[in-house]
Design goal:
This protein is an alpha/beta fold. Helix content is 38%, strand content 12%.
């Protein structure tokens, strides 16, 4: 075995290549990542559960397969962390909620099955805002996750644990879910790549639902190329998911080096205000970088963009109030004993759900209630269609669009917990692509205030991930120093 002490592979692509070619053992890769978890996890709390024994066992299986010449897949030996709202057979899946504490699913999510087939090694389940409801990972029943760049600050949310795990070097890759920006916003705050694919491009089977028409699983990574490899590995049609698009896996990696010459990059002239000056400066530098690389910068309008936040906070809670009705203390999960069934329902849900989840259930139930459905939920659906129409018109003039991923760099823990509206505004720029179902990603693009990471968001039409990734790859190469 070659001594790679001074040049040990860190990216997913490099790890997989070295493992497949028997240059580095998967067991050694796992031990290095577990050592890093041991060193910093107490300070960061990226994980709800570290699967050390399972990861070691899986790594040994991969090494044995490589030793006899078997192809172990494109993600051979790559450690990956999973957001704790993706079902893992026999392994606790909690959604960071007391109401599911200790529940062990009887099946794997489709993405988990695909990861195993690709040779990846699940190293742990990551912390999140309870049931993916939040923008800071402070709404977890098991305590907050901290930003690896500054542990006095949040990592973003709701997939904060997954973003922090990659940023801290605990895993080469991770998966999160994105309902209103829950991959892209923490990716921006933690300085990693985060991708929300086209709705239906990645199976949601085994993802515990928050808002079913908005949820999508996607990757975190340290490089654009790693994200493309992971997305290709988990995408493709799944008959177990009725919303899955009937097509093969996305074709991205071979187009990464195509560049942006001749590409039309849209600047949204009526973008909602609220981004801090350091974020705006980086966005302008991103436009300049793409122009220098041969892209044409064009002005576009998306008038309904500003309504995204309002529509989202009616649609998402409405769907959540329906999806979370199943947690009743009867079929699975936590149960609080009481004298009768109705009292047991009330006691179980009162004890099991946190404040933010209760807030959204009540908001959603109200929006769906008799006499208010048309005034709130029905109107929000009309606004959603208007947003989609406005984006469609914008894409007639531009191939991709650029916006901030987060309005600010990472804020301090506790800064926004007493003001839900200020927390909700963190998703101003990410929510619209969930409402339209179109792909978007955050790519690190320098630093802002206090030397903290800034992410630029690239948006594209449905199923145009390759064009989106091409743009992100150019930005990655031209990060301001």
């Amino acid at each position: 075995m070659t001594d790679l002490t001074d040049s040990f592979p860190t990216t997913a692509i490099d790890i997989a290549w070295n493992v497949r070619n028997n240059i580095v053992r998967a067991t050694e890769v796992v031990e290095r990542h577990l050592a890093e978890i041991e060193r910093r996890e107490d300070d960061i709390h990226a994980f709800n559960l570290v699967l050390a024994d399972e990861a070691r066992e899986r790594a040994a299986e991969i090494d044995d397969a490589v030793s006899v010449g078997r192809d172990v897949g494109p993600l051979a030996g790559v450690p990956i962390a999973l957001k704790d709202n993706m079902c893992t057979r026999g392994i606790p899946t909690t959604c960071s909620s007391k109401i599911l504490d200790g529940w062990r699913p009887p099946y794997d999510a489709t993405v988990v099955t695909k990861l195993r087939e690709a040779g990846a090694i699940v190293i742990g389940k990551t912390n999140l805002d309870e049931f993916a409801m939040g923008s800071s990972t402070e709404n977890s029943a098991f305590g907050p996750t901290r930003n690896p760049h500054d542990t006095t600050r949040v990592p973003g949310g709701s997939s904060g644990g997954s973003a922090a795990a990659v940023a801290a070097g605990f895993a080469a890759l991770s998966l999160g879910s994105d309902t209103g920006g829950s991959i892209r916003q923490p990716a921006a705050l933690c300085g990693v790549v985060g991708v929300k694919p086209t709705y239906g491009a990645v199976s949601r089977y085994g993802l515990i639902a928050f808002a079913s028409s908005l949820d999508q699983i996607g990757p975190f990574s340290t490089t654009v190329a790693d994200a493309s490899l992971l997305l290709e590995s988990i995408s493709g049609h799944d008959p177990l998911d009725s919303t899955s698009i009937r097509q093969g896996s996305l074709d991205i990696t071979r187009q990464l080096d195509f560049g942006v010459a001749g590409l039309r990059v849209g600047r949204i002239t009526d973008l909602p205000e609220g981004a801090s000056s350091d974020v705006v400066e980086r966005l302008e530098q991103a436009f300049d970088a793409l122009r220098d690389a041969g892209a044409e910068i064009v002005d576009v309008e998306v008038p309904a963009f500003t309504y995204g936040l309002t529509a989202y906070y009616l649609i998402a809670p409405a769907e959540a109030s329906s999806n979370l009705a199943r947690y009743d203390g009867v079929r699975f999960g936590n149960r609080v004993e009481a004298p009768d069934t109705n009292a047991m329902y009330t006691a179980t849900r009162t004890d099991g759900f946190g404040a933010e989840v209760k807030r959204r259930i009540m908001l959603g139930t109200y929006a769906l209630s008799a006499g208010y459905y048309d005034a709130y939920y029905g109107r929000a659906l009309k606004v959603r269609q208007r947003i989609a129409d406005d984006f469609a018109r914008a894409y007639e003039r531009a191939d991709v669009l650029l916006t901030p991923a987060s309005p600010t760099v990472a804020f301090h823990l506790g800064d926004k917990t007493s003001d839900p509206m200020s927390m909700y505004l963190c998703d101003t720029y990410t929510i619209p692509s969930n409402l339209t179902g179109e792909p978007a990603m955050s790519v690190p693009f320098g630093t802002g205030d206090d030397g903290l990471p800034v992410g630029v968001q690239v948006l594209a039409p449905a199923l145009q991930e390759a064009m989106m990734f091409r743009t992100a790859a150019v930005l990655e190469q031209r990060v301001p120093r």
